[in-house]
Structure formats: structure tokens, C-alpha cells
From TrEMBL:
Pfam families: Glyco_transf_4, Glycos_transf_1. InterPro entries: Glyco_trans_1 (IPR001296), Glyco_trans_4-like_N (IPR028098), Glycosyltransferase_grp1 (IPR050194). Keywords: Transferase. It comes from Chroococcidiopsis thermalis (strain PCC 7203). Residues 166-316 form the Glycosyl transferase family domain. The lineage of its organism: Bacteria, Bacillati, Cyanobacteriota, Cyanophyceae, Chroococcidiopsidales. Residues 18-143 form the Glycosyltransferase subfamily 4-like N-terminal domain. GO terms for molecular function: glycosyltransferase activity. It comes from the Bacteria. This is Glycosyl transferase group 1. The keyword Nucleotide-binding does not apply.
Length: 356
């Protein structure tokens, strides 16, 4: 197949530090190339890929202080993609609602992976274009009545995640994610304080989360019991998660997937998460972690999590969240989309012949 992959421009593909969507796009794109597909990746110019790279901007926008308006570059990217739509069998968009209007007006089909959540505002646009083909990344994400082809869980290259048979001593808890209210770093701190275990926090602070960080997180960081180590690259992330005794995932929103859970379990570290969004689909209770309804339950689950088999955690990821499983799902969705399109075109042709 000739496939266009359309990535966000905010981070490079793959991301240097934070960027779950961009990591998934990178792994999907490269594996499709390995499987013999002709793939063109539309992304920032500093991206690294096995596919043919087409760039609108030279660097990831978040890291380019000269770029002030993200929307301009997103529109340029969309224009570039759809001006070349006839060159592809299908277009795979990872950038959300921005492409919906134009995608409905070209013959080349676009499949949309939903990497975010629905809001009262964006739901209006998705509902307007509900007939377009969508991929959900968890069943919990399916909160609108859309044309879902299937659910495809995000996958990782497990071999690139070192396995840690034993956590570091002394024991510590880990939190990795944006330092925002919905990701729950304040809850992770509460769990750490109640258990007496140290907590290591890593992640970026977006501009709109700065006041939350300064108000709720910064005053509790002492560099000993509660430590903030900033943004981390891939190697640092693996070390942080793999050396931890438990990774905390105390979200306060309906997380569409939560790649950090899979990354942690791949290193052997179990995850304790709050029962929101995709968490029940990602964690296997008593096998790779525990699912809790309250902060108190998370605290109570720590001793049990410490007893879980770390090899079992990794094997669980290998069996359910590897790149092969993810790309198999996408290839099946692509084939279904193109088969349905051929059948639809055949029906239209038959109807036209009958009328002539």
C-alpha cells in the first residue's frame, strides 16, 4: 500500500523526551516500511524515520522559539498532504479534528486515530463528520457514536526497554507524565507521603500547567522524599521506571490509553492506577499491577504490588502491547477500509449503469 502518515508537528518523530503520540507514529511508520509498504511521513524536519519524510517546519514546534502560531504550520501540513492525496491509497491522520473537513472532500480515504479525549466543543465537529473511519486506542475512548473500524492499542518495541529483575534499593515510587491536574502528580505525592516511600517525578510542565505546578507540586518537592528530576529522554525514562518498585498512575481524567503504564510494565515494574478511562484495559490486576478507586486503595495496594513477579509484567506487555500486535491491527483496518471503499464504488457504478 501507499500510505501517508500525518503526525503532529509539536514534537519530533520519535520524540526526544515527552510525546506518546509521536512515539506511536514512529513505531507504526517504521514497521509498515519493514513490512513492504510505501510510506510517506508528514512531520517536523528533525524527525527520524525509515519512511520518506516530508517536512513543513525544520524543527519540532515546541522546541522552536521562533514559531509563535502552531495553527499556521498545521494548516500548511494539511495542505501539503491533501494536495498529494491522489498519490496514496490512504491517508492516516494522527492530528485530530483539523483534517476532518478536507478529508471528506477528497477521493483518497483518510483513517483517523483518536489520540485524545472528546470535549463538549470538539465533539460537535466529530459528530458532524461521524461517518469518517476512526480508530480508537481503547474501548473506553468510544464516548461518541462514530464510525469506529476497530480499537487498536498502542504498542512499543519491548526489546528497546531493558528488563530490571529487581528494583533499586532503597525502594522508591515513580511518576512519569505531564505535570498537570489530569495526570495526578499531586495524588502521587499523597500516596508517597502516606506510604513513607520516596517518590521520583519526571515530566514536562506546559505553560498552562505552570500555575498548578507552582501551587500544588513545587512546595512539596524537597529533593529527598519528593524529587522532581525534570523532563527525561528515553534512556533516563527507562532507568527511572525500571529501578522503581512501583509506578503510580493516579489520573483524574478518562485517559485514552496511557503509554507510560505499558512502558513501566515492560521494564518489569508494576503499575497502580486509578480506575478511569483505559486503565482497566491496560493493567491486568494481580498480574501487572492493581486498579484502584481511591487514593486510599492505592496506598493499600502498594505492599501487594511489591510482591508481583516482574518477569510476568514484562511478558504481559510482550503478549498484548508489542509493535507487531499494533501494526497487525492497523493493517487489518487499512484493508477493511480499502475493501469497503472498493465495494462502495462498485455499488455506485452499478447504480449509475442501471440509470443510464
Amino acid at each position: 500500500m501507499k500510505i501517508a502518515q500525518v503526525a503532529p508537528l509539536w514534537e519530533r518523530v520519535p520524540p526526544l523526551t515527552y510525546g506518546g503520540t509521536e512515539l506511536v507514529v514512529s513505531q507504526l511508520t517504521d514497521e509498515l516500511v519493514r513490512r513492504g509498504h510505501e510510506v510517506t511521513l508528514f512531520a517536523s524536519g528533525d524527525s527520524q524515520t525509515l519512511a520518506c519524510l516530508e517536512a513543513v517546519c525544520p524543527h519540532a514546534i515546541r522546541l522552536d522559539p521562533d514559531i509563535k502560531d502552531y495553527t499556521v504550520y498545521e494548516m500548511l501540513e494539511i495542505s501539503q498532504v491533501y494536495e498529494r492525496a491522489a498519490e496514496f491509497d490512504l491517508i492516516h491522520s494522527h492530528i485530530g479534528l483539523a483534517v476532518l473537513a478536507i478529508a471528506s472532500r477528497v477521493k483518497t480515504p483518510t483513517i483517523h486515530t483518536l489520540h485524545g479525549n472528546f470535549t463538549p466543543e470538539n465533539s460537535k465537529i466529530f459528530q458532524l463528520y461521524h461517518k469518517q473511519p476512526y480508530i480508537s486506542i481503547s474501548n473506553a475512548q468510544r464516548q461518541l457514536d462514530l464510525n469506529y473500524l476497530r480499537t487498536v492499542y498502542n504498542g512499543i518495541d519491548v526489546e528497546k526497554y531493558s528488563f530490571f529483575a529487581q528494583p533499586q534499593e532503597p525502594s522508591y515510587l515513580a511518576f512519569l507524565g505531564r505535570l498537570s491536574p489530569e495526570k495526578g502528580p499531586h495524588h502521587a505525592i499523597a500516596v508517597a507521603k502516606q506510604t513513607g516511600l520516596p517518590l521520583k517525578i519526571a515530566g514536562k510542565i506546559d505553560a498552562n500547567d505552570r500555575s498548578f505546578f507552582e501551587r500544588e507540586i513545587a512546595p512539596q518537592i524537597d529533593g529527598k522524599h519528593i524529587e522532581y528530576i525534570g523532563e527525561v529522554n528515553r534512556a533516563q525514562k527507562i532507568e527511572l521506571l525500571g529501578n522503581a518498585s512501583v509506578t503510580l498512575f493516579p489520573i483524574t481524567w478518562d485517559e485514552p490509553f496511557g503509554l507510560v503504564m505499558v512502558e513501566s510494565m515492560a521494564t518489569g515494574t508494576p503499575v497502580i492506577g486509578l480506575n478511569r478511562g483505559s486503565v482497566p484495559e491496560v493493567i491486568s490486576p494481580g498480574k501487572s499491577g492493581f486498579i484502584c478507586n481511591t487514593i486510599e486503595e492505592m496506598v493499600a495496594a502498594i505492599p501487594q504490588a511489591l510482591e508481583l513477579n516482574r518477569q510476568t509484567c514484562r511478558e504481559y506487555v510482550e503478549q498484548h502491547f508489542g509493535i507487531a500486535q499494533m501494526v497487525d491491527g492497523y493493517e487489518a483496518a487499512y484493508q477493511e477500509l480499502l475493501t469497503n471503499r472498493i465495494a462502495q464504488n462498485g455499488r455506485i457504478l452499478s447504480q449509475n449503469l442501471a440509470l443510464s
